[in-house]
Each structure stands twice: as C-alpha cells, then as structure tokens.
Amino acid sequence: MGASAKKKKEKKKDFQKPKLKVGKAKPQAANATSTSFKAKAIVLNQQINADAPSQNAQFLHHVSLLSSRVDSQRKESLAYLASTLGGGVRTKSLPMPTEALLEKAMPLILDSSSGVRTELNKMLQALSPTDIGDHITKMLPFIRAAMTHLSQDIRKTALDVLSWLLNKAGQDLVSSPGGWSKTLECCSTLLNWKNLAPNDTWSASKTNFRSDTKAIARAMQVAEQLLSVGLLAPSIEDKENQHDPGAYLPLWDHGHHQIPTKASAYGYLSLFGKPVDDDSRMLEDREERLLVFNDRFRIGFAKGIGGAKKEGGDIGRIAGQLSKTLELASKED
Fold first, then answer.
1. Where are the stretches annotated Disordered (predicted)?
2. Is-contact 229 179, C-beta < 8 A?
3. Binning pLDDT at 50, 70 and 90, where does residue 276 land?
4. pLDDT band at 11 (very low <50, low <70, confident <90, very high)
5. Helical packing angle, 213-231 and 152-175, nearest 10°
6. SS in 3 state form for the chain?
7. What's this model's pTM, rounded to 2 decimal places?
8. Percent of the chain residues topping a pLDDT of 90
9. Which of 227, 229, 246 lies closest to 297 in space, CA to CA?
C-alpha cells in the first residue's frame, strides 16, 4: 500500500462513526472533567434572621405557654424559664414582675404530669430568697392545696416545695398571714394527727400515704422543719449576722427603729381590708406561735409522735427529732 493510500485511509477514519457494542459505556472525550469528587460544605439548618425575637419576647412567650393544654409544652417552657433564671439573670431585668410570674407558675404544682412538677420545682429553686420573701402569701394557697390533694405524687411535690421555701424564707413563711396556723393544719391532716384524742393511738397505716414509709418520714421531716423555724429562737450564726445595737446608737430594741426591709411591714395590724380570722392572722412573735400550737396542735402532735416512735426506722428517728424540737421550744418559752 502506497503512502498516498495510507493517508487517505487515516483521513477517512475521522469521518467514520464508531460502532458501539450493546451494554458498553460511551467513551469519554479527552478533555472531559471528572465530577466524582466530594467537597466539604457548611450547611445551616436555620438561616440567621435579623427579625428574631429578643430574649424578653421569648421569656414572655414561654410564660404564656404555661397555660398550654399540652404537657410537653408546659414542661419545655418551665425548663426554659428555669435555665434563664438560673443563668444569673436578675429578676429586676425580667420583662415581668416576680409576682406575675408566680401567679402563672404556681398553679402547676397541681399538674397531673410529674415532669411538669419537676421542672416547676427547678424553676422555683432558681429564684433568690429576696425574690420570694414578699410573695409567700401568693404561693402558700397552692402549696396547701397540693398537700391535701388526692394524688400521692402531688402531695410529695408539695412537701418538696414547702421544704425549699422553709430553707430559703422560713421566717417570712411562718410570719405571713395564715402561714403558721394553716400550714400546721395541713401537716397534721397529712399525717392524720389533727383529730387524735388523748386515748387514741396512731400508726403509719392511718396516714394518707398508707404503706409508703418514706413519704410518711418525709412529711414528718417537713413538719419538724416547720416547728424548728416557727418555735425555736434564732441560732448563734443568725445572731452574729445581726447588727450590733451599740455600734450605732445607745437604744434598746435597735431593730425596731430601722427602716423595714419587707413589704407591708405593718400588715399584721390589719388596718385596711377585711378583718382577718384567727387562722389568717400574722404571727410574727415566737411566743404567739407557741400559744397557737399549744392550744390547737399540741395534743395531736404528742400522740402522733408517741405512735411514730414505736414504728422504728426513719419514722421513729424523725419522731425523736420532733420530740426534741418541742422540748427545746418549751424550755425557751
């Protein structure tokens, strides 16, 4: 084959269409770019919104959701409020007063969902003692209603909240209107010590907790805590924290001449509003609280403590603490 025939054959190849076999992929071009590689990318699930609600708006939104019919929604809203209050945010900087927040939150102590009540307890613990001292009168009716509720779990939650309140603002609680008499009555009703006569005997099976000895011991522990705060004199540490009268002016009862540190300092006089009954009186003096206890609750508590000592275990141990508290209160009188 000559050179001219070979050149003609090679030129002819450029214009011939290749025959493809069935199932065979089409050959790639020489200048083809491979797209099989993968590159890392940042994916934003939620784009930044310049019109996002502020922290105050979110706080108010979650407060409004406390009345939601969905249990999970109430629980999540309480968790948000607890995290916000526990994050060092001052209550003065909140978009609503503490009183309004407690009015929305405290009814949830009667909620049927245990998760909601747990988050409520966490939210209350995030509040400082100075925030709740003036609002105890708003909280106690819900706590007492929960203490006498038919549900045993709700009664347990009420005991936890009452114990926390006694630790943080015990003197404000026992000095508030009805804080001493009505709370003591709830404790005695819970333990079935209210209507015990001198000849009656008490046993753990007669309480509303039936055979739950831990719940009975917890109720007795909170009752002992209430009696300690209301009947015993201030401890040495509390006295050391008080101001020395001689450091200022040579006056007797120097504390009575200072500016009151709590709201409605003269509310116990009942100068305005409806006249209060014996159960709703403010008992700011330890002697007055002891007189009310001796007159209305001493017999029932004595019989209940005597029967509890015979039970043994945690119930008997706490009964011994209750007995010592009452003995100290009688000696200090």
1. 1-31
2. no
3. low
4. confident
5. 10
6. CCHHHHHHHHHHHCCCCCCCCCCCCCCCCCCCCCCCCCCCCCCCCCCCCCCCCCHHHHHHHHHHHHHCCCHHHHHHHHHHHHHHHHCCCCHHHCCCCHHHHHHHHHHHHHCCCHHHHHHHHHHHHCCCHHHHHHHHHHHHHHHHHHHCCCCHHHHHHHHHHHHHHHHHHHHHHHHCCCCCHHHHHHHHHHCCCCCCCCCCCCCHHHCCCCCCHHHHHHHHHHHHHHHHHHHCCCCHHHHHHCCCHHHCCCCCCHHHHCCCCCCCCCHHHCCCCCCCCCCCCCCCCHHHHHHHHHHHCHHHHHHHHHHHHHHCHHHHHHHHHHHHHHHHHHHHC
7. 0.74
8. 40
9. 227
CB 144 within 8 A of CB 186: yes
Token pair belonging to 89 = 């945010």
Residue 159 tokens, joined: 């005991």
CA distance 111 to 66: 11
Q: Which amino acid is at 205?
A: S
Pull the structure tokens for residue 269: 């006089």
164 falls in which pLDDT band (50, 70, 90)?
A: very high
Tell me, what amino acid is at 280? S
Q: Residue 307 in contact with residue 192, Cβ under 8 Å?
A: no
Tokens of 212: 């739950």
The C-alpha atoms of residue 227 and residue 222 are separated, in whole angstroms, by: 9
Q: Which amino acid is it at 33?
A: T
What is the C-alpha to C-alpha distance for residues 158 and 155, in angstroms, rounded to an integer? Answer: 5
